[in-house]
Prior knowledge:
Blueprint: H1 2-23, H2 26-31, E1 38-41, E2 53-56, H3 58-69, H4 77-83, H5 89-98, H6 104-117, H7 123-130, H8 133-148
Helix pairs in contact: 1-8, 4-6, 5-8, 6-7, 6-8
Amino acid sequence: MEQDLEYRQQLLQEYKQTVMPLLRYLPWLEMNKGQTGSTYYQGADSTEHSLAFPVYDSTLLQFVNEAAKSKLMERNYRYTYTRNHIRTHEDERRIIAAAELKDWDSLRGILSKYVLGGRTKGTLWSEAMQENIFCLVLLKMKEIIEYWDKPLDIR
Length: 155
């Protein structure tokens, strides 16, 4: 019994250290939920055959880069989607809302899909912003840590 408690405390400390740097983006993510986090640049002398490309908000890029370097990234995130039968954004939100400490890897998988997948498919970062996935995952991770430990100071 005492070993379980020690293990959980050790696990929570590890989770806390991993999530804390990302929680500083939470106010920005909450303020910009539902927005794309990007605009399309075409240039002043663009023609109808010119290609527009996304220009991402600098805060979003900082968040994505910091998240990509963290231990939260799960390279095999596709397994999370198959195992949990996740096909839509509603499925993602359902899994996030129901997540507990034991579901930490599912949260990591959902976050990883958008952070890592966005490197090759640029629309995923904007999609995660519009669907509020980044914000929901971080809020749930914070909630789990605070439930088992103590309130976090994210100033």
